[in-house]
Design goal:
Layout (H helix, E strand, L loop, with lengths): L3 H8 L4 H21 L2 H4 L5 E3 L15 H8 L10 E3 L19 E3 L4 E3 L8 H5 L8 H27 L1 H20 L4 H28 L6 H25 L3 H10 L2 H9 L4 H6 L3 H14 L6 H23 L7 H4 L1 H25 L9 H26 L1 H26 L3 H32 L2 H27 L7 H17 L14 H10 L5 H16 L7 H4 L1 H10 L19 H4 L6
Antiparallel strand pairs: 1-4, 2-3
Helix pairs in contact: 1-14, 2-8, 2-9, 2-11, 6-7, 6-8, 6-20, 7-8, 7-10, 7-11, 9-10, 9-17, 16-19, 16-20, 16-21, 16-22, 17-19, 18-19, 18-21, 19-20, 23-25
Length: 610
């Protein structure tokens, strides 16, 4: 077995090959930004009412405004009841208003719906009439999208580890592109919803493969930068999407355009070679050597036979380490809940992941409801998210994980509640309306940063033996938040201020709860659950050798009171414990670019945010 990190040190952890691969593979993240938030535009809900011919026929009633039509045809009870109309006989209307009877019983729309098409000529809602008794289909389809992401994370994480990064990327991208075009040509709401699930599943599979690939070929201290660049491309994607939506106002056309623009991802997937780290892990050394030589030439380096001999020697030592680890205790999901402080940390982590996803998608998917221009608002959402990533990158090590996480999620919660209060009292005051939008963008800034930080916090809160499991558990909780968020957004059709109040309250609770996390900034990596339990209590990480000595003393104290045992027999179990405890493993890079010192490809699969 060839140890790739040894070869990577010769090639260089950063160079032309890393920049090129990151640039090309990050196009997948850009395309992901198109499809993740395209529903802001294609599922936009315009103003609507019942169709009421001939009163809304401009030939018969040329002088009636839309407000006149609403007044004469639509019941009013504190607000217009757009799903109903007055049940008088409209066939008697002949250009005069003598037929109008506003005391008639309200009836459901029996001749379809009229939509305001001044902003978009056609959306999913207008084409499939997803209003009134069919309005539930929109939050359902959006929620199912996040179910698809959850399925994709489970399915393609295993596929990428078993069959390789490149085959996974090619397969997932090809299937995703097929799903994009199928969505563009959907002929029913049911087909649209089903295809969106496939889009999420396959797109997330491609995201796993590309992100892990980038992390595997870069040096440990540069993964911060490359991980962040990859995620920044995602924000660029949905900012650029605003421009496309401005030009193509029919949802079929917009989906077709972003589908076409996603095809280069497949070209990149076919051209890029397999990850050399994965090839060496699978003992496909000849292929790995060929790829490494290509990367070395791009970086202006020539690998010698001595370099390969050194890598083979390091690989043999690594194999021995792995064999010892395989003989050690196996850990499972249940270990997250077996010890008291670990259990509390796990519940807090799950809640924070849930809230971050819940609020993040609640704000992002609701850009269309903000006052002002929908295209500008969506772009500004991306700008504030980009600014948040940069801010967190610059301050995370200075302020600390716990405090910055709490500050950012509290900023989001306070921003949302402030936006609600201002909007409720704004009326027609344009300055207050603008202030409400500003508070909403401040909330987006906060939640984008906290969603980024929770990856780093989770990585550092859990010891190596269950870190991957802890990250996966948090990821599942976040998907639940994404699934629920569209339904909360739909509550604004009944009570306009309620969704942001719910999102804001959850964010504030999560911000306060984040202060209960121990600070991990500058702390060494924890290896065992025993270390973690002590750290959660004292805030200090005990060295493994000290932990072993303490266990030895305790064992001696207990055994001194027992007769019939030799000195040698008393310490058999302790020696086993000490051997297992001192094994070193590597900490994976988090998804947005917060520094970790090493990388474990298996653990990283669970830590991709988008």
């Amino acid at each position: 077995m060839i140890h790739f990190d040894t070869i990577l040190a010769k090639i260089g952890g950063i160079g032309v090959c890393q920049y090129l691969v990151c640039l090309f593979l990050s196009y997948n993240s850009l395309a992901g930004g198109f499809h993740a938030l395209v529903t802001v535009f294609i599922a936009y809900e315009p103003d609507y009412r019942c169709q009421v011919p001939p009163i809304d026929n401009t030939t018969v009633y040329p002088n009636l405004t839309e407000s006149d039509i609403l007044n004469y045809t639509t019941p009013y009870d504190e607000s217009y009841q757009y799903c109903y109309k007055y049940g008088y006989d409209y066939t008697t209307c002949d250009g005069t208003l003598s037929c109008v009877n506003q005391s008639a019983k309200a009836i459901e729309c029996d001749q379809g719906y009229w939509y305001d098409r001044s902003l978009f000529t056609e959306t999913v809602i207008t084409e499939f009439n997803l209003v009134c008794d069919r309005s539930y289909l929109i939050p359902l389809s959006t929620s199912m999208y996040y179910v698809g992401m959850l399925v994709g994370s489970f399915l393609f994480g295993n596929v990428a580890d078993r069959y390789g990064r490149k085959p996974t990327l090619v397969l997932a991208t090809a299937l995703a592109i097929g799903s994009y075009f199928a969505c563009a040509f959907s002929v029913s709401a049911e087909m649209y919803s089903a295809v969106r699930v496939f889009i999420a599943t396959f797109r997330y599979g491609a995201t796993i493969a590309t992100y892990v690939y980038i992390m595997e070929i870069t040096g440990a201290k540069y993964r911060t930068m490359f991980g962040m660049l990859y995620q920044i491309f995602y924000t660029f994607g949905f900012m650029i999407l605003s421009g496309f939506a401005y030009v193509w106002r029919d949802w079929h056309e917009l989906m077709f355009v972003v589908s076409i623009l996603s095809i280069p991802v497949l070209i990149v997937a076919i051209v890029v070679p397999e990850s050399p780290r994965w090839l060496f892990a699978m003992e496909r050394d000849k292929e790995g050597i060929r790829v490494c030589n290509i990367y070395a030439r791009l970086n202006g380096v020539k690998l010698t036979e001595e370099d390969w001999d050194e890598a083979r020697k390091a690989g043999e030592e690594k194999l021995k380490e792995i064999s010892q680890e395989n003989a050690a205790r196996k850990y499972s999901f249940l270990d997250l809940f077996k010890t008291p402080r670990m259990r509390l940390i796990t519940f807090s982590v799950m809640f924070n992941w849930f809230v971050n996803s819940f609020v993040y998608y609640g704000i992002s998917l609701n850009a269309g409801s903000l006052a002002g221009d929908i295209f500008v608002n969506n772009t500004l959402n991306g700008v504030f998210e980009f600014a948040s990533y940069v801010f967190c990158w610059l301050t995370l090590d200075r302020i600390g994980r716990r405090l910055l996480l709490s500050i950012m999620v509290l900023v989001s919660g306070v921003g949302l509640l402030a936006s609600v209060i201002v909007n409720e009292y704004a009326g027609e005051n344009q300055s207050l309306i603008t202030l409400g939008v500003v508070f909403a963008f401040i909330a987006k800034f906060g939640i984008s940063g906290s969603f980024a930080i929770i990856y780093q916090v989770t990585n550092e809160l859990y010891p190596t033996v269950i870190r991957s499991t802890g990250m996966g558990n948090g990821s599942v909780a976040s998907r639940v938040g994404g699934i629920i968020a569209p339904y909360v957004i739909s509550l604004q059709n009944t009570i306009s201020w309620l969704p942001n109040v719910i999102f804001g309250v959850f964010a504030i609770v999560a911000g306060i709860l984040a202060l209960t996390f121990p600070e991990t900034n500058g702390k060494p990596i924890m290896e065992t659950i025993e270390q973690a339990e002590i750290f959660y209590k004292t805030g200090e990480i005990i060295d493994l050798s000290e932990l072993a000595n303490n266990a030895k003393k305790e064992n001696e104290s207990q055994m001194n009171s027992v007769t019939g045992f030799t000195s040698e027999s008393r310490f058999v179990d302790l020696n086993k414990f000490s051997s297992n405890a001192l094994k070193e493993k590597e900490l994976p890079m988090d998804s947005i670019g917060c520094v970790n010192e090493s990388f474990d490809q298996q653990e990283t699969v669970t830590s991709v945010q988008f």
